[in-house]
């Protein structure tokens, strides 16, 4: 872009934020340009744009000033919290990044079971602080490093603890939201003077659905500066560990139970999940397979390869395994839960393993996942450094996911592993968790790729899985789909309408998705 415009904008950013909170230095810009992960793996590098400037707002006023300056100089803005997700970076030219790391306040209202969080408070931090007061937040399954505000306002928000603590999209209470025109919009009880942050609805209709759509707006609808989220009980002392990462020494959690479980067929596994959900006894659940487990167990690529060669985990976990954690307020309560759990697993032909099965590491992986989702990142990126999904990523009933979506993604993945386009780490590397003690699961199938390898090519597996899911009327990208092709993109169309309402000029939010949909659909349809 023209350097005189950028220089003028930079001068105004410095006036508004202070020189230490703005950068156009090429070295800094470069560090906000690349993201190792799903983006590289899935789509290649062509869509990584260099931002023109990076800003560090510290308040609502700073955010408003940045938006105003962007509008004045024809720049696009994009906010991120911890930037674990690839859509956090620039997705088109002329973008100014708002790195929200200076906004990291956390306010806990344990008695009223909610907390107010700013963007840069991580899942891990909020857990530790809340546990000290006998409560826990839901931890988005992305891991302890990610922001709960981001998943609640702009992303998806499920995780292994969703079985007990719901999903972040459903934990949202009041919200402070700076729209693309710089207006401060207050959702829920916050909009009533003096009422506080305790309720997501009213006065008037709830706007939370509009805020985030089906699976989040990915930073296209403005900037979220604070959100209140629900809290849930934590029975007993805070989680404590000694030693060093990644395999800390966890101290025993009283009145808890942690096990791995394997089922040998999908029908029985699905039946067990329905029953476990209905029994309302589980506090954390997560399905992985040997690929993810080997990634979590190993500390180097050499060790990973040796573990694969020995084949220990593939033999036991090759067709997937579950981690289940239960935590109760009393010994009697945990005894009851264990009895119910063991009965359901036995009746459905499952095998229960102690988590020390493969030694201390395998125990620490289970317990740290159960408390914080600690090993998700490690499993997702070892050993290739990039991960993609063999779609469909479905969020549907257990039957839909197990009996229809999973076989489709397995077939898509096998077609690509057989020609070495993605890593063959075992037949099944599927991640699943039950949500809200219900009949719903969310399912995604991790596939590992090294994007720099000449043969690597994950996008075909994604397209094949998507096409076969569409043919079978299955939801993709966590969205249930209408059977009628006419209504299939209903969520996306509504998101486009909302974006146009919030940013009528279409000039200051990153409108890449708007353009794409305009090309896909006739004008009257949008
Ligand atoms: C390996 C891996 C596993 C994951 N697993 C899960 C999972 O189990 N469940 C799940 O729900 N998600 C998952 N995710 C997706 C995502 O990382 C999470 O939803 C996470 O909460 C995002 O938090 P973050 O701080 O990384 O957000 P960021 O990466 O900073 O941002 C995510 C998106 O939200 C926007 N955004 C962030 N903050 C703001 C803000 N303050 N204002 C406006 N827009 C903003 C960004 O522009 C971006 O598009 C996973 C991602 C990875 C890489």
Notes on the structure:
The protein starts with a helix and ends in a 6-residue tail after the last helix. The model is unreliable at 516-526 (pLDDT under 50). It is an alpha+beta fold and 526 residues long. 38% of the residues lie in helices and 19% in strands. The structure holds flavin-adenine dinucleotide.
**What is the CATH class of the largest domain?**
Alpha Beta
Q: How many structural domains?
A: 4
The fourth-level CATH homologous superfamily of the largest domain is FAD-linked oxidases, C-terminal domain
Strand content: 15-25%
Helical content stands at 25-40%
Task: Give me a quick take on this structure.
Helix content is 38%, strand content 19%.
SSE order and pairing:
Layout: H1 3-17, E1 22-23, H2 26-31, H3 38-43, E2 53-55, H4 60-73, E3 76-80, E4 95-99, E5 106-109, E6 114-117, H5 123-131, E7 135-137, H6 148-153, H7 162-165, H8 168-171, E8 172-178, E9 184-187, H9 208-212, E10 223-233, E11 241-242, E12 249-250, E13 256-262, H10 266-279, E14 284-288, H11 290-297, H12 301-310, H13 312-317, E15 321-327, H14 331-347, E16 351-354, H15 360-372, H16 376-381, E17 386-389, E18 394-397, H17 398-417, E19 430-435, E20 440-449, H18 459-471, H19 490-502, H20 512-520
Parallel strand pairs: 2-4, 3-4
Antiparallel strand pairs: 1-2, 5-6, 6-10, 7-10, 8-9, 8-10, 11-12, 13-15, 13-16, 14-15, 17-20, 18-20, 19-20
Helix pairs in contact: 1-4, 10-14, 10-17, 17-18
This protein binds flavin-adenine dinucleotide.
Flavin-adenine dinucleotide is lined by residues 37-38, 78-85, 87-88, 100, 119, 140-142, 146-147, 149-151, 154-159, 218-219, 223-224, 376-377, 380.
